[in-house]
Amino acid sequence: MFRDFTVCDAGFFRNLNRDADAWSKIAPIKSRGDISWFNVPDRNTEGANQVQFNDSSSVAGTPLLAYFDEYSNLGDMGDYFYWGFLVKGQFADVVEKLRPFVHDDRRLRNKDGVWVRTEVKVLNSRWLKIDAPNEAPGRTRTERVLLIEQ
User: Fold this and answer.
1) d(CA 81, CA 68)
2) What is the mean pLDDT of the chain?
3) How far apart (Å, rounded) are the C-alpha atoms in residues 58 and 43?
């Protein structure tokens, strides 16, 4: 399922729905139609935008501690939606262990101490693979970024 998450598309949420019974034992799940998501109390409020896992879940021996889901409206710079996992471990070890489970990991780059894979969509284009951008996408582009950061 972690590889599904790293694709950064709706497949992760459909697969979470398929396996909702198992994941609901680890954290609260909400569902609608064929998708499910981890139910954080309030994605708009720092501190309430996480749900702790109540099990010793792990990926490649890396303990999963929590899931976060947050939203920021940055005006002309765009709307930002972030979701991901908080894990336990030394950063270099976490990157080494998780990288083989990352979709398209050969494009994962270290940029200023953050591992990143970026794609952009302009209007109705397909997702275009790009290096890490130097500016915010604004309101004319949609960007999706996989980050592994400290």
Assistant:
1) 11
2) 90
3) 24
pTM: 0.85
**143 conformational bin, left if phi > 0, alpha if psi -120 to 50, beta if neither:** beta
**How distant, in Å, are the alpha carbons of 35, 52, 70, 146, 149 from that of 21?**
13, 17, 24, 27, 30
pLDDT in tens, 88-139: 999 999 999 999 999 999 999 998 899 999 998 888 889 888 886 667 777 7
Degrees, nearest 5: CA angle 26-37-139: 145
Q: At residue 54, what is the residue type?
A: N
| DSSP one-letter string for 59-127 | ETTEEEEEEEEEEEE-GGG-EEEEEEEEE-S-HHHHHHHHGGGSTTGGG-EEETTEEEEEEEEETTPPP
